[in-house]
Amino acid sequence: MINMERIFKELDELKFELPSWAFSDAGTRFAVFHEEGAARNVFERIEDAALVHRLTGCCPSVALHIPWDKVENWEELREFAEEKGLKIGAINPNLFQDPDYKYGSLTNPSEKIRKKAIAHVMECVDIAEKTGSKVISLWLADGTDYPGQDDFRSRKKRLEESLRYIYENMPADMYLLIEYKFFEPAFYHTDIPDWGMSYLLSEKLGERALVLVDLGHHPQGTNIEYIVATLLSEKKLGGFHLNNRKYADDDLTIASINPYEVFLIFKEIVFAKRDPELSDSAKKVVLMFDQAHITKPKILAMIQSVLIAQELFTKALLIDENRLREAQKNYDVVEAEEILLDAFRTDVRPILREYRRQKGLPEDPLRVFREEDYMEKRRRERR
Amino acid sequence: MINMERIFKELDELKFELPSWAFSDAGTRFAVFHEEGAARNVFERIEDAALVHRLTGCCPSVALHIPWDKVENWEELREFAEEKGLKIGAINPNLFQDPDYKYGSLTNPSEKIRKKAIAHVMECVDIAEKTGSKVISLWLADGTDYPGQDDFRSRKKRLEESLRYIYENMPADMYLLIEYKFFEPAFYHTDIPDWGMSYLLSEKLGERALVLVDLGHHPQGTNIEYIVATLLSEKKLGGFHLNNRKYADDDLTIASINPYEVFLIFKEIVFAKRDPELSDSAKKVVLMFDQAHITKPKILAMIQSVLIAQELFTKALLIDENRLREAQKNYDVVEAEEILLDAFRTDVRPILREYRRQKGLPEDPLRVFREEDYMEKRRRERR
Amino acid sequence: MINMERIFKELDELKFELPSWAFSDAGTRFAVFHEEGAARNVFERIEDAALVHRLTGCCPSVALHIPWDKVENWEELREFAEEKGLKIGAINPNLFQDPDYKYGSLTNPSEKIRKKAIAHVMECVDIAEKTGSKVISLWLADGTDYPGQDDFRSRKKRLEESLRYIYENMPADMYLLIEYKFFEPAFYHTDIPDWGMSYLLSEKLGERALVLVDLGHHPQGTNIEYIVATLLSEKKLGGFHLNNRKYADDDLTIASINPYEVFLIFKEIVFAKRDPELSDSAKKVVLMFDQAHITKPKILAMIQSVLIAQELFTKALLIDENRLREAQKNYDVVEAEEILLDAFRTDVRPILREYRRQKGLPEDPLRVFREEDYMEKRRRERR
Amino acid sequence: MINMERIFKELDELKFELPSWAFSDAGTRFAVFHEEGAARNVFERIEDAALVHRLTGCCPSVALHIPWDKVENWEELREFAEEKGLKIGAINPNLFQDPDYKYGSLTNPSEKIRKKAIAHVMECVDIAEKTGSKVISLWLADGTDYPGQDDFRSRKKRLEESLRYIYENMPADMYLLIEYKFFEPAFYHTDIPDWGMSYLLSEKLGERALVLVDLGHHPQGTNIEYIVATLLSEKKLGGFHLNNRKYADDDLTIASINPYEVFLIFKEIVFAKRDPELSDSAKKVVLMFDQAHITKPKILAMIQSVLIAQELFTKALLIDENRLREAQKNYDVVEAEEILLDAFRTDVRPILREYRRQKGLPEDPLRVFREEDYMEKRRRERR
Question: Where are the alpha helices (DSSP H) in D132-237?
Fold first, then answer.
C-alpha cells in the first residue's frame, strides 16, 4: 500500500538546519537557567549539532548567530564543522542586543546607527562568504513601545533604504531571508510584524529576497499553512524557523502544542515540491529550528524535535493527493478531511525505524542518546 | 492657540459615507431583532441616511448593497437620493448569501459558479455607472471550514483570475476596493484574511485596485494604524469600514471600545494628507461606516457614530506635528506621547458646536434628534 | 502489550450525547444554508440521532432544545426515543431568541422579564421530569454591547437570585449545568464569560450545580485541559459541549483543528475516573456534542465526530500512567512527553474495528453510512 | 456644575503605590538596557519613589521586592523611607529566579523545594512586620512548558497546602494578595492563570486572602472591568498592578494603549466605594503600579504614569451616577454611553492643576521634573 521506495527517496531529501544558539544557556525575561554541560562557545555548539546529526542523519547544517558565534578565523571554523560532518547554514545578524539599537537598527532615526546596523549585516555577508553559506537570515527587533515614539512612514522608508543597500551589495548567489514577528521586544508596533510586510519588502528588493516564517510569530488563530501556500505560490518562501507556541513566541519544541498544524504546513511543502512550476523554489525552502529549551536538556530536546518533525513530514508524504483532489472537486468535505486524517493517523514509527536501519542510523536515537549517556559525558568534558 | 480657521477648513473636507444596510433590521447568528420604524427598503434607508446627513452635515453619500438595495430604475433612485442631498457611494456586491457560494464565490472550484459571481460583480459595476458611483467595494466570504476542504493555491489562482477579469472590465475611472477579514463566516481559512493578501492582489491588478480596512477584521492586538500608514505610503489605501470591536467582528459603534486607537488611525490620515507626495491619494480614502446596531436604535446610533468619529478626527487635527517630529528626533518618548495626549485630552466639543453653528447645523444633533422625536415619527410612518 | 480487555471495558463506559439541533439546518450570521433531507422536527431529529447511535453504538442519549423540540405530549416523545434506542438527555432552555431577552434574561433589569425567563427554565425542568432527564443545561446569552449599558454588579445580583430560585425548585436528583462563554452574542461583556464565574455561581448554589465546558468558548490560548483538571478536582465538572474552533465559537467538528488538545482533555477525564476520590463525580461528566455543520452533511458529520472522539479517547486510555508519574517525579520532561506521544502516535483504528466487531457494530460506520446511502434515503423521505 | 469640593475630597483619598523595582534597569528577554542614573540599590529606589511622591503628592508608599530590596537592618530602611515621606507597602516574594524553582516553587513536586519557597514567603511576612507593611503580594511563575511535564491536580493540591500554611502563619491583620497571570514564563500551563483560580484559592483560605489584578495578565479581549466588578461584589479584590499592554504582559505605561479601559475600571472602584455595603472593602484596594520602562526614562515615566492614572480616576469621579442608572433602567444604551463619554471627554487638567495648587504641589509635575533636570542630577550622583 505505502510506497516505501518513494517515501525513502523523499526522506533522503528532507534536511533540517540546527541553530547553534539552541545548545547554550537560555532563559525567559525572568531568569536565565544554567544547564550543566551546555555548550559554552561556537565549537562546542557545533559539536552538539554534529551529535544530533550523527544520531538522526538529517541535520547536515548549522546556522550561526553573529556575534555570539564570532571567531577570528572563519576558515578554521568551517573546517572544524566539515570535519564533524556539518556545513555552515544561515548567518543570523544580531541587531537587537546593542544599546544603540534601543530605538531601532535598520529603521533608527539616526543615520549613524543605521549605518552601523548595515555594516553589521555586511559583516555577516562576509562571514557567509567565508564559511560557504548562501543565506543571510534577518530578524529585526525594530519597533516602538508607545504611540508617537516615531513616525511609521519614515521608519518604513529608512528600512527600505537599508535593505536595498544590503541586497545590492550581497553576492549574486546569496539569499536574504526577511523574518517577521507580530510583537516583542517592541510592544506598540513592530516594523516587520507580518508576512505582508516581509512580502512587500522582499518583492521590492528582488528574486533573492524571500520571506522567513517563524511558526511562533503570528497572532493567535492565524492559519499559517495558508500563508505558507501563498508564499510558495509566489516563489517567495525562503525558509522556516520551526518551533511551537501556545501563547506568544514561546519557542517550544515543534508540534508540542499542535502536531496536526505542523502536518498541514508540511503538506503544503510536499505538494509544492511535486508541482512542476514550483518544485525548484519549494526545494530551496530551508527548514531551520529555532527553539529555546529551558525545562528540557538541550541536546536531548533537539533530537526529539528533529524526530518529531521528520515523523510529521513522513505523515504528510502519505497523503493520497489524487484522492484528495477528487474529493475536493466533489465538495466532499468529510472525505477530503478523512484522507488527511488517514495519513495523520498512520503510525509511521516502523517506517522511520526501517529507514534509519537502512541508512546505518540508530533506530531509536533518543534511546541511544540516553544509553550512551551523552549528557553525563558533556558535563564531564565541560566543567 | 488653536487655529480655528485651519481646523474648520479641514473639517469641511471631512466626509463620511453611510451604509444603507445599517438602517434595517440586523442580528447576531442567534437572533434577528426587529426595530419598530426601521427602514424596510432602499428608499427608506436613503431617507434615514439623509436625516443623518441633515443633522450632522458631513455624510453626503450612501453605500448600497446589492441585491438588498436593488431597484428597477437606478436613475430614479439616484434622483431620489440627490433630492435628499445624497450621492450614491460604494456599491457592495453580495457574494455570500446565495447557496451557490457555500464553497466559495470568486474562488469556487466550479467555473460556472465563479462566472455567476463575476457576473454579479459586473452587474454592480453597471449599477455604479448608472448611479454615478466610482467605487466597487468587494468583501468575499470565501474560505473553508476544514483542512483539506479545498486546495489553497488553486483557490488563489482562481481568485486572481476572477479579479483580473473584473478589474479589466471596469470603467477606467472606477476603483475596486478589496476588503480583508481574518475569519468568519469560514472558520478554517479565509481566502483574503489580512492586509497582506489584499495588498498582494491589488498590487498585481493595478493602480485602481486598493485595499479596504475594516477596523473589526483583524486578529487581536493588531496595530491597525501601522497597517494604515503602510498602505498610505504605498498609495494603496482605498477606504475604511469604520466600527469597533472588543472580540471579533463585533460591528459596534466606532471608538466604543478604544477611542484612542481611532484617534491614532485618524492621525495617520491627517498626516498623510499634509504630505505633498501622498496628499492626493490620501484625500481619496473613503471613510465608510459599517456597523450593526442591535441594542441601540439605528438612526440614533448612526448619528452618535458620526459625531464620535468627527470628534476624534478633530482631536487628530490638533496634534502639533512639528513638536512631535522634534521629540521623535530626540528620542523623547514621553514628550512625543504627551504631544499626542495633549490633543486627545482636549475637549473639542466647543469647537465642534461652533463649527456646526457656523454651518447652520444643529449644535447638538443627538439632542435635536431626540427632541424632534424622529424615532416616533418613523414608527408612525412605517407601520 | 496493550490490555485489550481493559480498553474494551473502558470503551463500554464511554458514552456521548447527541444534540437534536445538530440535525437541522444551521447557519452563520451571514446566511442559513438548507440541506436537503435535513431533519425538520424533533421526531426526525431523534431518528437521525438514533441512526448515529445504531452505527456507532456509543450515543445512547439525545439532548433537547426548548422550544425548538417542544411537543404536546412528552411521554409520547420519550417513548418514540426509547423505541429508537435513545434516552432523553440534557434539556436546554432557550433564553436568547425571544425579543424580550435583548437586554438580558435571568439578568434583565425588568423583574417581569426575569420571571418569564425563570418560568421558561422551570418549564424545562418539568420537561426533564416528564422525559426522564436528570440534567438542565443552561447557556445564557446575557451580556451588554456597550460600556454603561447596565450595571455589572446589579446584573450579577439578579443572576444569582434567578439561579437560586431555579436551583431550589428543581427536583432533588436533578443537575444544573452552568455553561460559560467568552463572548457572543454580546460584544462588550458577557455575564458568565469564563469558568471562574460558572464556578463561583455553582459553588454558591450547591452540589448539584456544576460547570459545563464548551470547547469553543474560551479566549485564544486558554489551556482547557487545566480548567478541566481544576473542575474535576473540585467535583464541579458537569459536562462538555464537544466541538472545535480555530478562531472563536466556530462549532467545528471535534479535533478538526487540534486533535492533540482533545486527547489531553480526555486524559484528564481518564485519570480522574481512576482516582478513587474523584471516580464517582468524574463518571457523571456528560460528553455532549455541540457542533454546527454547514459545509458537511449533518448526519455524516456527526458520525465522523463520534468516531474521532472515540478514537482520541482510546488513545488517552493507552497512556502509561505509572511511567508518566515516574518521569514527572524525575523532572524528565522529554520522557513524560514521549509517554503521552507514544499513546497519541498509536494507530488505534485496528483496536476500534475489533471492538466494534465484537459488539456487532459496523467496523467502519462512515463507509456503511455512505454505502447504504442514508443521505439519499433521507432526501427521499423528507421531501 | 462640577462639585469641586467633592472631587477634591475623593482625590485626597486616591493613593498609588510605587514599585521599587521600576526605578532600576529593566529589559526584555532579548536585552537589558542600562539607564545612566538609574537607582542601584533599595535606598536609591526609595529616593526615586520619594521624588515621585514629592512632585505628585499621591504616592505615599513603596512596594518592595525580596531579595532585590533585601537589607540587613529593616528598621533602618523603614526609617529611611519615613524620612523621605514614604511608608513601606506590599512585600513581594521572589519565587522565580532561583534555579530550584525551574519546575515550580509552591507547587514543586519536591517537598524540600516547596518548603524552601514557603520559608521565603515567611521571611517576607517577617519583613512586612518589621517594616510596618500589612500586605504580602504573591506572584507565582509556576507552571509547565509541555504536556505531561507534571500532574495538574497534584500541583493544585500542593499549591493549596503551601498557601494554607502561609495564610495560617501570617499575623492576624496581614493580607495575602494572590496574583494571576495568563502565561509566561511557563508556556504550556500556568498554575494560577486567571481570576477564577485566584478566587478559588483565596475563597478557600479566608477573608484576608484576596485577588490581585495585573492589567496585563489577561487573554486578549478580556473585559477586565467586569472581573473587577465581580471581585468587588465578593469583597475579594485586594489590589491592582497598574500598567497597560497591547499584546501580552507588556508592562507599558498605564493607559498608553487604551485609556478608556482604565477609566471604565476606575469607574467600578468609584462606584463600589459609594456603595455602603462594599465601601469598606473597596477602600482597601491597593493601587500599585507595575511597569517596566525601557524606552522611557524611569522616574519621568513613573511621574507620567501617576498623572495619567490620577487624571483618568478624576474623569471617573465625574460620571453622573444617578443619570446613568436612570438610562440603564430605560434601556437607553446611547444615553448611558454618552453619560460615560461626557465624563471621559471632559478635560480635567484644569481641575487637577487647581487641586495641586491648593495642596502646595507643582501644577505641572512633568515640567518641574524636566526644568529641575532631576535626570542629570541622578546621573551625576550615581556615577
Answer: 152-168, 195-205, 224-233
User: What pLDDT sits at residue C383?
Assistant: 86
Q: Chain D: nearest CA to A207, how far in angstroms?
A: 31
Please tell me if residue C223 touches chain A, with a CB cutoff of 8 Å: yes
B189-217 average pLDDT score: 98
Q: What is the pLDDT of residue C48?
A: 98
Supply the pLDDT for residue B29.
86
Name which of D33, D147, D252 is nearest A187 (Cβ-Cβ): D252
B277 inside domain: yes
Instruction: Tell me, yes or no, if B256 comes closer than 8 A to chain D by beta carbon.
Output: yes
The residues pairing with B179 across neighbouring beta strands, listed in sequence order, are B212
D346 vs B246, B296, B347: nearest CB: B347
| D52 φ, ψ (degrees, to nearest 5) | -60, -45
Q: Is residue B85 a contact partner of residue B50, using CB atoms and an 8 Å limit?
A: yes
pLDDT given for residue C192 in this prediction = 98
Taking the Cβ of residue B97 and every Cβ of chain C, the question of whether any pair is shorter than 8 Å is answered with yes
CATH number at residue D338: 3.20.20.150
Structural domain including D75 reads: 4-381
User: In angstroms, how far apart are the furthest CA atoms of chain D?
Assistant: 64
Residues 278-297 of B with CB under 8 A from C: 294-296
Q: Which of D147, D268, D328 sits opposite C150 (nearest CB)?
A: D328
Mean pLDDT of the region A45-72: 98
User: Among D255, D257, D322, which Cα is nearest to D289's?
Assistant: D255
C28 pLDDT more than 80: yes
Instruction: For residue C200, give the nearest of D103, D183, D199 by CB distance.
Output: D199
Cell of B7: 481646523
Residue B280 included in any domain: yes
Touching subunits of A (3+ CB pairs, under 8 Å) are B, C, D
Confidence of residue D78 (pLDDT cuts 50, 70, 90): very high
Q: What pLDDT shows up at residue A15?
A: 98
A324 and B CB contact within 8 Å: yes
pLDDT in tens, C232-261: 999 999 999 999 999 999 999 999 999 999
Q: Centre a 10 Å sphere on the Cβ of residue A76 and count the other Cβ atoms it contains.
A: 11
Orientation angle between helical segments D298-317 and D333-345, nearest 10 degrees: 140
Q: What is the pLDDT of residues D204-259, one digit of tens each?
A: 999 999 999 999 999 999 999 999 999 999 999 999 999 999 999 999 999 999 99
Contacts of C103 in chain D (CB under 8 A): 331
- Contact list in C for residue D220 (CB cut-off 8 A) is 219-220
Percent of chain B topping pLDDT 70: 100
CA angle C262, C263, C266 (to 5 degrees): 85
| Domain total in chain C | 1
Answer yes or no: is C351 within a domain.
Answer: no
The yes-or-no verdict on residue C1 having pLDDT over 80 is no
A331 backbone dihedrals φ, ψ, rounded to 5°: 55, 30
Inter-chain touch C297–A220, beta carbons under 8 Å: no
Query: For the segment C81-94, what is each residue's pLDDT rounded down to a tens digit?
Result: 999 999 999 999 99
- Smallest CA–CA separation between C197 and chain D, in Å? 7
User: Per the omega criterion (within 30 degrees of 0), is the bond before C19 cis?
Assistant: no
User: For the segment D325-376, what is each residue's pLDDT rounded down to a tens digit?
Assistant: 999 999 999 999 999 999 999 999 999 999 999 999 999 999 999 999 999 9
* pLDDT score recorded for residue A32: 86
**Amino acid at the residue B100:** D
Question: Whole-angstrom Cα distance, residue A217 to residue C141?
Answer: 34
Contacts of A30 in chain D (CB under 8 A): 96-97, 141, 185
Chain C residues touching D331 at Cβ < 8 A: 103, 109
DSSP state of A35: -
Task: Confirm whether B327 is domain-assigned.
Answer: yes
D368 contact A CB<8A: no
Q: Which of D149, D194, D200 sits opposite C328 (nearest CB)?
A: D149
